[in-house]
Amino acid sequence: AASHASACASGALEPSRTLLNMGYSKKRASSSLRFSFSRFNTLEEIKQAATTLISLVQKSTLATFMTDNP
C-alpha cells in the first residue's frame, strides 16, 4: 500500500510529524510517500512498485522542468 500519511492521519493535510521530528523541512515532509509491505509481498511486486515509482518521478521531474523552462 502507498499513502502520503500514516493510517491515523488519513485525510489530514499536515506533514508527517515523524519526518518533521527527524529534521526534515515542512515542504519535504509534506511531499513524502509511505509504503507498507508485508511478508506476503513478493520480490517481483516490490520491483514493480519501484519501477513504477521511478517512472512517475521521472515524468513528474520532466513535466516540472518543461513548465519552468518553456
Uncertain stretches:
none
For the sheet with most strands, the description reads:
2 strands, antiparallel
User: If you compute it from the alpha carbons, what radius of gyration comes out, rounded to the nearest whole angstrom?
Assistant: 15 Å
Pairing-aware structural class of the strands and helices? Answer: mainly alpha
Distance between the termini: 36 Å
Helix content class:
40-55%
Helix count, per DSSP? 3
Order of adjacent strands in the largest pleated sheet: 1-2
**Beta strand %:** 5-15%
Secondary-structure element order, as H and E?
A: EHHEH
Total tally of structural domains: 2
Mean pLDDT: 83
The general outline is flat
Give the number of DSSP strands.
2
Write a brief caption for the model:
With 70 residues, this protein is mostly helical.
Can you put this structure into words, describing what you see?
This protein has 70 residues and is mainly alpha-helical. The protein folds into 2 domains: 1-36, no CATH class; 40-70. Helix content is 51%, strand content 6%. It is built from 3 helices and 2 strands. Strands 1-2 form a two-stranded antiparallel ribbon. The longest helix is centred in the C-terminal third of the chain and has 26 residues, at 43-68. The protein starts with a strand and ends with a helix.
Brief descriptors of the model:
single chain, 70 residues, mainly alpha, 2 domains, two-stranded antiparallel ribbon, 3 helices, 2 strands, flat
List the helices and strands and how they pair.
Layout: E1 2-3, H1 17-21, H2 26-30, E2 34-35, H3 43-68
Antiparallel strand pairs: 1-2
